[in-house]
Structures are given as C-alpha cells and as structure tokens.
Design a protein that fits this description.
The protein is an alpha/beta fold. It contains five helices and five strands. It is globular and about 45 Å long.
Length: 156
C-alpha cells in the first residue's frame, strides 16, 4: 500500500523527496534499431542472454561512481539487459505514463526535482515535460516540484 506524505515523514524523517536525472520516460525513435533487427536481438536474448552481440558499449570511465566501485560496468551490455531496457523504455514506461500509473505512484510525494538536458539524444525532452506537467496537477501534490532544463545537456 502507498504511504501518505505524513507516514513517509514519520517513518523516514530524513527523506526529503526524489531527484530524477534524465528520467527514461520514453525513447527517441531514432535511437532504436529497425524492427527486424529488434526481432532478431529479442530471439537471441532468449538463446544467449549473457552475450553482448550488437548491443551498446558501456564505458565505466563515464560513470560518476568511484573507480573502486563494483557497480562500474564496462563492455557490451548482455543481450538480456539490452532487451529488458528496450522493453522498459519503449513499451512499459510509456504505457504506465498513458495510464497515469507513474503519476499515482508519486502522488503525495514531499518534493520532486527533475533534471533534464535539452539535447538528450536518448530520452525526448517533450515526454519528460508532458509527464512533469501531469505530475504537478495531481490533487495530492503538496510538495515542491521543479523541472530544471540544462541548456545543451546531453544524456550521458
């Protein structure tokens, strides 16, 4: 069950809200491979889930984690990870936004800060702006909500 703002503050007195950095609330169609390639990769992800065939390359030096962190990943994404992220950003999240599921999950939140680059090559700024506008109109919205648009800001 969802907690009210008062319950969150009582149970977690140091919780102030959420900060979203370049939230994946959609994906630019130009970043997706053609449909036949997606179909092949989805099939391969079931057969070879841990292999990185034609998947994005991650460069750990671009992470904000310290070099000693075990969270740093370098190399090609496993097919299963790429498939899950593709499904999440292309289907699940846009569907949740259209059905207002994402809005309901954060209704009553103490505060929300969204930081987004206006030149994000992965996530369309318009999809984040539309979602943010809908969130600020929620009836139980008592906390501060702010969307910061970084000029020339990119996804990475």
């Amino acid at each position: 069950p969802q907690q009210t703002e008062e319950e969150i503050q009582r149970n977690h007195p140091n919780f102030y809200g959420i900060v979203l950095l370049a939230p994946s609330l959609g994906v630019h169609q130009r970043t997706l491979p053609p449909s036949p390639v997606i179909a092949v990769l989805k099939t391969l992800s079931r057969l070879l889930p841990s292999h990185g065939i034609l998947t994005p390359i991650e460069h750990s030096e671009e992470y904000s984690c310290p070099p000693s962190s075990t969270r740093n990943f370098s190399g090609r994404w496993p097919l299963s990870t790429a498939n899950m992220l593709l499904d999440l950003t292309s289907n699940i999240i846009p569907s949740d936004i259209l059905s207002n599921r994402v809005d309901v999950l954060i209704e009553g939140l103490a505060s929300l800060l969204v930081i987004m680059g206006d030149r994000d090559e992965v996530v369309p700024y318009d999809s984040v702006q539309r979602w943010f506008d809908s969130v600020t109109k929620l009836r139980k919205n008592t906390g501060e909500k702010k969307l910061i648009k970084l000029k020339n800001g990119r996804h990475s």
